[in-house]
Amino acid sequence: MFLLVFPIVLCLHSASGFEQNPPHLVGIGIGDVTGPAADVAMMGYAKHWQETKGIHLRQFARTFIACDDVDCIVFCSADIGMMGTAVKQEVVKRMNAEFGGKYHGGNVILSGTHTHSGPSGFLSYALYNIPNRGFVQETFDAIVEGILDSIREAHRSIRPGKIYYGETLVPNANVNRSPTAYLANPEKERKRYEHDVDKVMQLLQFESDGEIRGVFAWFAVHPTSMNNTNMLISSDNKGVASLIVEKHFNGEVMPGKGPFIAAFPASNLGDTSPNLKSPVCIKTGEPCDPITSACKDRGDFCVASGPGKDMQESTWIIGDRQAEAALEIIEEIGRNKERSRVRGAIKSIGQYVDMTNYQFELEQEDGNKTNVTTCKPAMGYSFAAGTTDGYGSLEFTQGEKDQHGIWRILTALLDQPTEEQKKCHAPKPILFNTGDMTWPYPWQPEVVETTLGMIGNVAIAALPGEFTTMAGRRIRDRLRRVMRSHGKRDPKIILAGLSNTYTSYVATFEEYQVQRYEGASTIFGPYTNAAYIDQFEKLADALFDGATMRSDLFPPNLLDKQISLLNLIMPDHPPVRKDFGDCSLEPEGMYRRQDSVHVAFVSGNPRNDRRKNGTYLLVEKLEANDLWVDVATDASWETKSGSLFLQLVYTVVTDEEFEQQAWNTGEGEVTPATKQKQQARRRKSWRLRSQF
Ligand SMILES: *[C@@H]1O[C@H](CO)[C@@H](O)[C@H](O)[C@H]1NC(C)=O
Ligand SMILES: *[C@@H]1O[C@H](CO)[C@@H](O)[C@H](O)[C@H]1NC(C)=O
Ligand SMILES: *[C@@H]1O[C@H](CO)[C@@H](O)[C@H](O)[C@H]1NC(C)=O
Ligand SMILES: *[C@@H]1O[C@H](CO)[C@@H](O)[C@H](O)[C@H]1NC(C)=O
In what ranges is there compositional bias, type Basic residues (predicted)? Predict the structure, then answer.
């Protein structure tokens, strides 16, 4: 009898794997990944002097888990520069310990929004840790713990649910910052697209018990509205979009505390910029050279900005435009529930690939096939030139195809590339031959992760770096073709940029020939993009065939090799006759609309306690019923907290929006100093807390 039953059970189970419309389960979660708010260089512009000196917006990780009865996809978008191998390894390791084998490397996609205003030091390859004087354990821990918090919450909240897909155009929130490189792509290909950047936002909406619980909205724009002079931690335009949409659904709940979450993950943003005004030379205001982005005066920098009057306003505008687009899609989904519903099995597949020598057959335009290969990593000269979002060194320009100057000798001292390596990367002149640089530990990744998730007809391709607009479109094209060939009608391809592994940029073969910043930072040579297209095709085929990919290749765990030269944190002492939490700069009695309120408290180094899921600052309002209610934390747009010696200085800008909530009349009373002090004591400073 038992023998008879067994095969039937097996049959049923395997049949359910191919069930057309299995029921879905969904979970949603958020965690705080804010890193050290002092002393640590920010990740993105690679400027050692751009160190954190406080907080404008807290950084959050937002996760959805979607499952059917066979497989799951865990997708997390964190307000950090990018995702790195070490963070992914650590998160998956701890997930394994906590949840068993349910979640693993192949069905967990971790992604960074690419904000350039978060603390650095969490990547495990040497090149990315130079500006920040090495690895920063505090940043790494903050990110790993915050991501795990969001995953735990998502896991705990899993319930039967529904998933919806929608999209819309976001007409005015991105431009191409290397348009001359884009023009190198074949005309026939370019003619298929109206713009030189992707203007479509793609959104997944998660519901359960008939209630909307969260949305994830991918849109290709660099979060570089805050420029390299900013010293306050910020989630940039993507984070602003999250705050606006979350507030729309959560009401007056403080940022990061509401049940509804809205994530704005990175996409194929490699050559995109939110700085909509054309780049100009800082000193003269003249346009820069379109090919090299250099100024006539070689001592001048070429910088793009806008659309606002300063970087804060630009951040708000670009964030708001993304938020508006997402809200529009949500409304549209509400009107067309049946049509927007995503039905079908949930599947995922991942692989590790040795990108230093990936050989594959490439089909040319004319149908001829050639065997091509990728190269060991190397960075080109124009990498050091930076971009119009953030300049690099004046000794370099974009579009450099020759070695020059003292650099030929200096960088050869680090490592002299072989003729073979030079030929492999041509026409890129090699500045840093990172593929052969292993001291004190490897400089750039060699084994790279590519992952593909599928929910019905929606595919999520986890891209291990910053793919340019066209590089992304080519992946989307190929995946669409493969999905159709496997019988998927109307496939939707979401490109999840900066996921799992960070390998700098990926430009197309043609853009690579131009060697602007993105091409010079395409580390595995001219066929990098084509190699990934090949990999995603193989992943998709394997996913449909129910096959598994080779699994004997893993990136090294470099955590125990890391070096940190960051200054140590000193224990904090309040000044004589002062206590932590004492108010050292009293607010005025009265404020009008648009006024800034400056308050200072005696505090210590925020690196001593990052106040995870908490705040260094609380603005409260006294209600008629004599109860104090929270109106803003250090994660709110309206507040800025900066550290200054032993004080934290808080600035609250009473803009109209804020004013309406905080002060109902045109003018209002700010809590008198005694109350301030009481509150300061009541919530205590972080230092007091750490003493107890
Ligand atoms: C964060 O704080 C909120 C309340 O302020 C709490 O409900 C939530 O569980 C906390 N999350 C974590 C991960 O500690
Ligand atoms: C950064 O933005 C500020 C305005 O907020 C501007 O004054 C400054 O020149 C900009 N700096 C760079 C390098 O873009
Ligand atoms: C493609 O193959 C044909 C026939 O083998 C050859 O004549 C042609 O030159 C090839 N084209 C290229 C670009 O190699
Ligand atoms: C590419 O290499 C494979 C394996 O070595 C070989 O079978 C194939 O014929 C080659 N293709 C071309 C176009 O040379």
Answer: 678-692
Residue 173 has pLDDT above 60, yes or no: yes
- Residue identified by tokens 């029921």 is 23
Can 273 be counted among the known catalytic residues? yes
Of 111, 115, 305, 268, residue with least CA distance to 182: 268
Q: Using CA atoms, how far apart are residues 207 and 161, in angstroms rounded to an integer?
A: 5
* Tens digit of each residue's pLDDT (9 = 90 or more) over 50-79: 999 999 999 999 999 999 999 999 999 999
Measure the CA–CA gap between 393 and 154, rounded to whole angstroms.
43
Q: How far is the CA of 214 from the centre of ligand 1 (A)?
A: 17
* Residue 665 DSSP code: S
State whether the beta carbon of 229 lies less than 6 angstroms from ligand 2. yes
pLDDT digits over 159-172, tens only? 999 999 999 999 99
Residue 17 has pLDDT above 60, yes or no: no
Q: Is the peptide bond before 36 cis (omega within 30 degrees of 0)?
A: no
Query: Cβ neighbours of residue 222 under 8 Å, at least 6 residues apart?
Result: 114, 116, 174, 177, 269, 272, 273, 274, 389
- Identify which ligand lies nearest to the alpha carbon of 373: 4
Written as six digits, the tokens of 156 are 């705990």
Out of 46-50, 145-149, 644-648, pick the least confident. Answer: 644-648
Q: Which ligand is nearest to the CA of 366?
A: 3
Burial label, 692 (beta-carbon count in 10 A; 0-12, 13-18, 19+): exposed
Return phi, psi of residue 43, to 5°. Answer: -90, 120
User: Where in the chain do CATH 2.60.40 domains reside?
Assistant: 583-690
User: Cβ(313) to ligand 2 under 6 A?
Assistant: no
pLDDT in the model for residue 684 = 27
Cα separation, 254 vs 256, in Å, equals 6
Of 217, 214, 270, 264, residue with least CA distance to 238: 264
Structure tokens at 233: 């931690």
Which residue's structure tokens are 């109209």? 656
Q: Which of 520, 531, 523, 530 is nearest to 427 (CA)?
A: 520
Distance separating alpha carbons of residues 199 and 112, to the nearest angstrom? 20
Q: Which residues contact 268 (CB under 8 A, 6 or more apart)?
A: 198, 220, 463, 467, 468, 469, 471, 472, 473, 475, 495, 497
Q: Whose CA is nearest to atom 1 of ligand 4?
A: 371
pTM of structure: 0.92
CATH architecture of 583-690: Sandwich (2.60)
Q: How many CB atoms are located within 10 Å of the residue 361 CB?
A: 9
User: Tens digits of per-residue pLDDT, 549-597?
Assistant: 877 899 999 999 999 999 888 888 887 888 777 777 777 766 666 677 7
| Residue among 117, 273, 348, 603 flagged as catalytic | 273
Atom of ligand 1 nearest to the CA of 153: 13
